[in-house]
Amino acid sequence: MNPASRLLTNLPTDATTAERLSALRQNIFAALEDGTLTVAELEALREARVALGVSAAQARTLRAEIYHAALLRVQQDDQLTSRELETLNQILLFFNTLKDES
């Protein structure tokens, strides 16, 4: 399945910043549902962020929340696998490389 096909990218034009951030948050959690974050999902999330009208700075406000939720999930079995570590690194990569469109 195309990762972008399951992401919310359309909101009413009068949607608030909080609503736009909530939609981005939902998209990130949807992408993380299987415990991984692929390159295709990262690209789809970047495109969804722009389509939702969320700036890079606004998106970064979600960084700690998303990372914390992912960390809690991987700690459930008291082991950190290389795949889980890679996913955590991908989350940081997503947020740390966001740029606003010129």
Give an overview in words.
By secondary structure, the protein is mainly α. Helix content is 60%, strand content 0%. The chain is built from 5 helices and no strands. The chain has helices spanning 17-31, 39-52, 56-60, 63-74, 82-96. Helix 4 (63-74) packs antiparallel against helix 5 (82-96).
Shape: elongated
Helical residues, percent = 55-70%
Q: What is the H/E string?
A: HHHHH
DSSP summary, beta strand count: 0
Quick recap:
The chain is mostly helical and 102 residues long. 60% of the residues lie in helices and 0% in strands. The protein is built from five helices and no strands.
What layout of secondary structure does this protein have?
Layout: H1 17-31, H2 39-52, H3 56-60, H4 63-74, H5 82-96
Helix pairs in contact: 1-2, 4-5
Keywords:
102 residues, 5 helices, elongated, mainly alpha, 60% helix
